[in-house]
Amino acid sequence: MNKVILMGRLTRDPNISTANGETMTTVARFTLAVDRRFSKKEGEQSADFIGCVAFGRTAEFAERYLRQGIKVAVTGRIQTGSYTNREGQKVYTTDVVLEDIEFAESKAASDANRGSMGMGGGYQQSAPAPAPMPSPMGAAGDGFMNIPDGIDEELPFN
Fold first, then answer.
1. I need a surface site. Which of 63, 83, 84, 158 has the fewest CB within 10 A?
2. H/E run at residue 96
3. Best CA proximity match to 98, nearest among 38, 149, 150, 52
C-alpha cells in the first residue's frame, strides 16, 4: 500500500502549469515544510521539505486557495521518477501525488501565522479573541459538572 498523510505549511505559492495531453490538465506543484516530531539538540524545530504535485480539480483548488504559509493536511501517494538534465546527468525525483487537500487551521489563524512569520506582507492583523463562554463545569475547571443540591433522588445509581 502506498498512502501518505502530511501536515505542513507551503513554503511558497503553488507553481501552476497546464499539461497538454488528450485534454488540458491543470498541474500544481508546491513544497510543504513538515515539522519533525523531535527537535534538534539546541531546542530548535527542524522540518522536512516535501515536494507535492496535484492534478485536475485538486490542482485547481490549490491554485485558487493555497498561498505561502498556509497550513494544510494532504493525502496522496509517493511517486518516484527520473529524467536526464541539460548536462546529461540522470536526476531522480520523489514527489507526493496528492489526492486530497484540506485546510489545517482557520483563515484567521493562518493570516496571523503568515504575519508573524514575515510572509505574505500585510497579514499582521489577528482575529479578535472570542468572548469567554459560561461553562457548566466546576469552578476548579476539573471537568465535572456542578450538581445542584436536592437532586439526589433523580440521579441514577444512588
1. 158
2. strand 90-103
3. 52
Distance CA 54, CA 101 (A): 9
Note the pLDDT tens digit of each residue in 56-75.
999 999 999 999 999 999 99
Give the bridge partners for 54, in sequence order.
28
- Rounded to whole angstroms, what are the CA distances from 42 to 46, 74, 143? 11, 30, 37
CA quadruple 48, 16, 115, 33: dihedral, nearest 10: -10
Asked if residue 77 lies in contact with residue 95, where contact means CB atoms within 8 angstroms, the answer is: no
At 85-135, the pLDDT tens digits run 999 999 999 999 999 999 998 777 767 666 544 443 333 333 334 444 444
Q: Beta-carbon neighbour count of residue 74 at 10 Å?
A: 24
Taking alpha carbons only, the member of 80, 82, 103 closest to residue 7 is 103
